[in-house]
Amino acid sequence: MSATHDDGWRVDAFVDGQLDLADQLAFERRLETDAALRARVQARRDASALLREQADRHAAPASLRQWVAAQAPARAASATPAPVASLRRPGDWWRRLLPARALAGAFAVAALALLAVGLAGPPWDGQQRLVDDVVASHARATLGDRLVDVASSEHHTVKPYLSSKLGFSPPVDDAPVAGTALLGGRVDFVDGRPVAALVYRHGAHVVDAFVWPEQGADSSARFATSRGYRTAHWRRAGMAHWLVSDVNEAEFGAIVEAMVRAPAGR
Amino acid sequence: MGNDEDWRRFEQLALPHLDAAYNLARWLTRNDADAQDVVQEALLRAMRYLHALRGNGARPWLLQIVRHTCYSWLKENRPVDHVVLDDLDAQGAELPAPADDEPPALAIRRADRAQINAAIAALPVPFREVLVLRELEELSYAEIARIAEIPVGTVMSRLSRARALMRTALSAPARPPLRTVPRASAGGGLA
User: What are the strands, taking DSSP E only, across chain A?
Assistant: First the structure.
């Protein structure tokens, strides 16, 4: 093993602060007289510093923290003891999220409102794959560099762009609900086909509205979750609509309601 | 989860390291949704094995479970990423140290956030994990050895190789970072 090779790990260990005391002292002594070694140490320090400054440190998302909170043993207020949560049970994981106090009331009202106007259907019993697919597309887009292909808050810019790329004309809503802004659109892929994705910002969250032509009668919104993201699906005027976001329950419901009600064929 | 006592202990010991757990899982699975799935599974295991945690060292303990869960997940879902480790270790010996006249510091300083993240993500998993644990989580070699279940010497050689791969990736900004390809001729073991 060459001396250079030997120094490689020693430089690393020195910069990482992992040399024992005796070795560290010996190395420091060498640095006093060895300019080339000093340069290598500096280069390693710079490389580490740059990596630490620039590399992403991913903090646990809110949905993960909520899941953790839901694992706490059931308090006296809950009717049933909380079993270990399954990882992918659509629709009912949220029931354990809300403390049995303040939020439950507001949500119950929202849920009733949706049910009353026939906008909320029964929970999914199938098509989990499609749910996972739209969630995966949403996650990919929000975590990667390419959130939109065309950045505009105007439907008369976004709509023709997507039409030209897709061969169908997706209905585009500028601002379905207060606090939601259209960021633009992109072509994405769901279930192996190219679809339109309309991207909205709602507070700190991104909402993706996927649209593609689908035969069949109009249907009411059906909700499902996957990996902490909320989804809703409905069909209207020959278009399948899928909404995906990690906004909270009540806001998601409000956005879905607004989009379902929006005038068709804008 | 068992009783309140166990949960309190779990909250105190494991939850402070939730971000570290997620960060590691996210870097290994390279996908937010998958990372969440893995961390959830790891936390469920951690709850079960809480009794095995003694003294301090809750962070390496949790990260060891997360890392183990990631590897199981990768083996099942991304077999391509689930690399055979011995071959990679043997290749470490063939890696030349950087020449004195090479200006790596300058080239690397120009690299931006996206390039650095892409370069890390392109590293084979065994190199990526030690780099993340050292540079981002600032764990000691001994702790990394425990988490990755490898000897300290292997931690050091993998770190050295990971850093060399990063240097290569970042000193050629015009090209996308290259994924290493196992060499046809395995060299001798580390001298």
Answer: 150-151, 180-190, 193-202, 205-213, 219-226, 229-236, 239-245
The interface predicted TM-score (ipTM) is: 0.79
Each residue of A208-235: pLDDT tens digit? 999 999 888 888 888 888 888 889 998 9
Separation between Cα atoms, residue A18 and residue A11, nearest integer Å: 10
Burial of A172 per CB tally in 10 Å (0-12, 13-18, 19+): buried
| Closest partner CB to A18 (pick from B1, B43, B140) | B140
* A contact residues 81-140, partner B, Cβ 8 Å cutoff: 82, 84-85, 87, 135-136, 139-140
**Cα separations (Å) of A194 from A143, A190, A211, B52?**
20, 7, 10, 50
pLDDT per residue as tens digits for the range A118-158: 444 444 445 778 888 898 888 888 877 678 888 888 888 89
For strands A239-245 and A205-213, give the pairing. Answer: antiparallel
Q: pTM score, two decimals?
A: 0.53
